[in-house]
Specification:
The protein has 374 residues and is an alpha+beta fold. It folds into three domains: 103 residues, GROEL, domain 2 (2-Layer Sandwich), CATH 3.30.260.10; 112 residues, GroEL (3-Layer(bba) Sandwich), CATH 3.50.7; 113 residues, Orthogonal Bundle (GROEL, domain 1), CATH 1.10.560.10. The protein is 51% helix and 14% strand. A hairpin with a 3-residue loop joins β7 and β8.
Length: 374
């Protein structure tokens, strides 16, 4: 099996198709992944809407893509086609409160911290007046705080046209700096104009706050919409797989023809390669070649076609499940990830070898229990 694995990896390298990360090719890769999990209509709509743009926004040459910077927000209303990509951050708010032991403790804390809080609020107001002056006086100034903001401070900020969002999640605080720029400040003393970020639109709602149209965002949000929880979960699973598929293609810099073209090509190569080896090695190569045809056979059978027709085909191409005819995956824009196929070959070979070793161990154990080791 190890000899067959090395040969299979060489065949896989010959099947590689280099890509230049152009949008059209990445859309085809995402569409191939989504159509295995969603209907064709929904897969095409969602692919064109946000999949590729989300990865291209995060991609930096020479650096791995962090998919954690793609936030997924579920909204149970409207239809799947209303899902969209937000080039920024969507803050989902939570209901939280601060509880005191008794009324006396509340009064003491309110009295001692009132002046301290007022001073901090006043510094924010002064910075806003300094930044939003002259031609920029109509701009909106937004404060996002990870902890709570008392109603009195909110009132002071609102009078100066400052939108304050409180109790933001920690991961959203990290994503805001990547999407809008600026810095997360722990102290008011060092607050300057250079610490601020920029966003074109900030739309406040009852449960969500949208921060959109950021300049060169390195964190984006996908809004998934659907009529039921089941549809939302299905879209979310497909979204994660599609994003991973595009990321793999971008990092590999190449793809493999889909429709099981690589398996069929490897099978035909192994039929010639097994004539060059002898003994037990030939049996292993033959078993490996037959195992590669399991997936093409399953695809043909599930599509209602004759699976034996493809085992005798001499053309190393994919299977068109609609017509049942052989097709060239590249012309149809059907691609698989190189690293996925490579890992599949490594894993399947290791698992098969371990299973055979288990049989040998059991056989050796039974022989030792017999009289005379027979």
């Amino acid at each position: 099996f190890e000899l067959a694995k090395k040969e299979a990896l060489q065949i896989l390298d010959k099947c590689k198709i280099p890509i230049n990360n152009d949008r059209e090719t990445l859309v085809q890769i995402a569409r191939t992944s989504l159509r295995t999990k969603l209907s064709i209509e929904n897969a095409d709509i969602l692919t064109d809407v946000y999949f590729v743009d989300a990865i291209l926004a995060l991609n930096e040459p020479g650096k791995p893509t962090d998919l954690n910077m793609v936030e997924i927000i579920e909204m149970q209303h409207r239809t799947e086609g209303d899902s969209r990509l937000v080039r920024g951050v969507v803050l989902d708010h939570v209901n939280a409160g601060f509880f005191y032991k008794n009324a006396e403790e509340r009064d003491r804390l309110v009295t001692s911290e009132r002046k301290f809080i007022d001073d901090r609020v006043q510094k924010i107001v002064e910075l806003k007046r300094k930044v939003c002056s002259g031609d920029d006086k109509n701009k909106t100034f937004v404060i996002v705080n990870q902890k709570g903001i008392d109603p009195f401070s909110l009132d002071i900020l609102a009078k100066d046209r400052i939108l304050a969002s409180r109790r933001a999640k920690r991961r959203n605080m990290e994503r805001i700096t990547l999407a809008c720029g600026g810095e997360a400040m722990n102290s008011i003393e060092n607050l300057t104009k250079d610490c601020l970020g920029f966003a074109e639109d900030v739309l406040g709602e009852e449960k969500f706050t949208f921060i959109e149209d950021c300049k060169n965002p390195k964190s984006v949000t996908v809004l998934l919409k659907g009529s039921t929880k089941y549809i939302l979960n299905q879209l979310k699973d497909a979204l994660r797989d599609g994003l991973r598929s595009i990321t793999n293609a971008v990092e590999d810099g190449c793809v493999i023809p889909g429709g099981d073209a690589s398996e069929i090509a490897a099978h035909h190569a192994f039929t010639q390669y097994k004539e060059q080896v002898k003994g037990r090695v030939r049996l292993g190569v033959q078993a490996f070649a037959e195992a590669l045809l399991i997936i093409p056979k399953a695809i043909a059978q599930n599509a209602g076609h004759d699976q034996h027709e493809y085992t005798t085909s001499k053309i190393p191409v994919g299977i068109d499940i609609t017509t049942g005819e052989a097709m060239e995956p590249k012309s149809f824009g059907i691609y698989d990830n190189y690293r996925v196929k490579k890992q599949l070959i490594h894993s399947s070979t290791s698992i098969a070898t371990n299973l055979i070793l288990v049989d040998e161990i059991l056989r050796a154990g039974l022989s030792s229990l017999r009289p005379g080791g027979q």
